[in-house]
Amino acid sequence: MRFEIVGSLSEIEVIAEGPSVRQRRQLRRRYGGLRWRKLKGVGTVRLGDGSLARAEIHWYEAHGIGKVRYKIKRWLE
């Protein structure tokens, strides 16, 4: 499913960091970076059909790399 994040994310919290990130090896191979963290937050997304919805979003982040692999985990409201 294609989506675009509209505005900023709120209620951001760290789910896992360092060795606890299961996809760490694949992230390092593809993007580089050393200290990967998995985070979650709440934001508004625009779906492929143009509709807007609030969702809980998960992603990975590393210093110097930025946010990668956004994924909608659940719909809110």
Task: Write a structural description.
- It is built from one helix and four strands.
- By secondary structure, the protein is mainly β.
- The chain has one domain (3-76).
- The chain has a four-stranded antiparallel beta sheet.
- Strand 2 (36-47) and strand 3 form a beta hairpin.
- The two termini are 19 Å apart.
Top keywords for this entry?
77 residues, 4 strands, single chain, mainly beta, four-stranded antiparallel β-sheet, 1 helix, elongated, 10% helix
Order of helices and strands: EHEEE
Structural class: mainly beta
The poorly predicted ranges are none
Which strand order spans the largest sheet, edge to edge or round the barrel? 1-2-3-4
- State the helical fraction: 10-25%
Q: State mean pLDDT (0 to 100 scale).
A: 95
Strand content: over 45%
Shape: elongated
Number of domains: 1
| Helix run count | 1
Q: How many strand segments? A: 4
